[in-house]
Amino acid sequence: MPHVITQSCCSDGSCVYACPVNCIHPSPDEPGFATAEMLYIDPDACVDCGACVSACPVGAIAPDSKLTDNQLPFIELNAGFYPKREGKLPPTSKLAPVLPAPMVSPRPGGPLRVAIVGSGPAAMYAADELLTQRGVRVNIFEKLPTPYGLVRAGVAPDHQSTKRVTRLFDRVSEHTGFTAFLNVEVGKHLSHADLLEHHHAVLYAVGAPNDRRLDIAGMGLPGSATATEVVAWFNGHPDFADLPVDLGHDRVVIIGNGNVALDVARILTSDPDALARTDIADHALAALRASKVQEVVIAARRGPKFSAFTLPELIGLTSTCDVVLDATDHQRVIADLATVEDRLTRNKLEILTKLGDASAPITRPRIRLAYQLTPQRLLGDERITGVGFADGGTLDAGMVLTSIGYRGKAIADLPFDDVAAVVPNDGGRVLDTAGAYVAGWIKRGPTGFIGTNKSCAAETVRNLVEDYNRGQLGDPAHKPAALDKLVRSRQPAVVDAVGWRAIDAAEIARGGGQRPRDKFVDIADMLAAAATAPRPPAYKRLLAGLHR
Ligand code: NAP
């Protein structure tokens, strides 16, 4: 009964280190780790101990006998990563190598203090890594009153298992060395220089908040938007609650075929009753209940073998939605299969060969994967009526969404590489800027999965601690307790971890047991919920401040 890793694999590698026989690969020290679509358990070496199940933060691992029908393809997918051998491998007792974290050397000026800007996965994994060291203090600064970045506002609401990683982040936030300053914007309420006056180092884990834009005629007309805006809309991000999403027509076209395109297509074609059991925003659920959309076309500019979506996500999509190809694209898939040797790409192509034909009548909202369509212009005068492609073909559509990737944004007082849209860095050390570090998408670009940020953040933290130990980081000018005063003087509506827990509890209560939570989308509502948090008596707050 070997264990199997399934679709929601976050690739953070926790399972690798928990495994007593080193049967999960690629491991973070192996070359393929950074680009792997997921991790795989070797069924011949697995000893069925279940240690990986407890270590996995997103519940992606189960014994092969406990998989749902939709998860069965993952048995072959895990096994296929390893060469075929005869029988069970002899048991070993070899743990995967753990990359050593340098120990913080104590200094007379007090413990290492690090400001982390952002509270998404890269920020929380960096905090976790720093807080493994005795005495270290981590202060997190987040623009919204709610933490966890793209886990809250980017992961699709029907992927609740992936969102379970927030339980790990909640545990990190309970550490005594951790303080959250939510609803505080660095660049508006506080500057980089302010943060450096109160910390030895500032680590930016701000992600890639912009979209890559497609520069073709018609972009910007009503009915055009980006897929990531729609993701933020259905996830209840306060800045996107009013996005005009008009679903009163037959077809939506999405340009680009990465995992974001798949997420949006799936949500737009899902049964609203099923979505009503998720944490989808109320406004999005209402719009989807009234939707007239019958088909979402995912249009890629290249052929099937270059599909940007990952195999686990394709397996998930085809097992839950009606997905079709037209006859020409079926031919393209078969032609690619005849030439491609790479195992993962062949697996994707084999799934595509089994898809239904687009000529069949539409009986429920469906997704069509389409290839060799380079967008040239959006059609329509007052609003979008379709999209024109370079081959002269057109597709009617009431809404066109570009889904061609995220893009990093420049940070005040730090250098910026405008081509790669990242902060130039060496292993997380920002070039030519003492005391500044980066982790996550602003460090390496917008690729990978939630857990990819664990090893990325660990590398940055290793370098930061090394610099601190070598005496390269100046001591903060102020005592730790002065920070709280400064933040409150600049942003009286700051929300702390206790306030966030009150928001969290209120959202869960609003879900009424039928849904994981019913999200607030209005910042004023979030702040009102935070204000109901039980507060310790003033003398205890004073003591806590003195001990910080
Ligand atoms: P992505 O995977 O980089 O895909 C971008 C798509 O846009 C590709 O199909 C690309 O086609 C196309 N494209 C780029 N420029 C174009 C242009 N000028 N015209 C037409 N098409 C163009 O981006 P993403 O979907 O935004 O995903 C970002 C990252 O988040 C990925 O690592 C993804 O795996 C991850 N993610 C994961 C999940 C999940 O695991 N469930 C969910 C969401 C996102 P070409 O290949 O031809 O350039």
UniProtKB/TrEMBL annotation:
<dbReference type="GO" id="GO:0051536">
    <property type="term" value="F:iron-sulfur cluster binding"/>
</dbReference>
<keyword id="KW-0285">Flavoprotein</keyword>
<keyword id="KW-0521">NADP</keyword>
<dbReference type="InterPro" id="IPR055275">
    <property type="entry name" value="Ferredox_Rdtase"/>
</dbReference>
<dbReference type="InterPro" id="IPR036188">
    <property type="entry name" value="FAD/NAD-bd_sf"/>
</dbReference>
<dbReference type="InterPro" id="IPR017896">
    <property type="entry name" value="4Fe4S_Fe-S-bd"/>
</dbReference>
<dbReference type="Pfam" id="PF00037">
    <property type="entry name" value="Fer4"/>
</dbReference>
<feature type="domain" description="4Fe-4S ferredoxin-type">
    <location>
        <begin position="1"/>
        <end position="29"/>
    </location>
</feature>
<keyword id="KW-0479">Metal-binding</keyword>
<protein>
    <recommendedName>
        <fullName>ferredoxin--NADP(+) reductase</fullName>
        <ecNumber>1.18.1.2</ecNumber>
    </recommendedName>
</protein>
<feature type="domain" description="4Fe-4S ferredoxin-type">
    <location>
        <begin position="37"/>
        <end position="66"/>
    </location>
</feature>
<keyword id="KW-0274">FAD</keyword>
<keyword id="KW-0408">Iron</keyword>
<dbReference type="GO" id="GO:0046872">
    <property type="term" value="F:metal ion binding"/>
</dbReference>
<keyword id="KW-0560">Oxidoreductase</keyword>
<dbReference type="Pfam" id="PF07992">
    <property type="entry name" value="Pyr_redox_2"/>
</dbReference>
<keyword id="KW-0411">Iron-sulfur</keyword>
<dbReference type="InterPro" id="IPR017900">
    <property type="entry name" value="4Fe4S_Fe_S_CS"/>
</dbReference>
<dbReference type="GO" id="GO:0004324">
    <property type="term" value="F:ferredoxin-NADP+ reductase activity"/>
</dbReference>
<dbReference type="InterPro" id="IPR023753">
    <property type="entry name" value="FAD/NAD-binding_dom"/>
</dbReference>
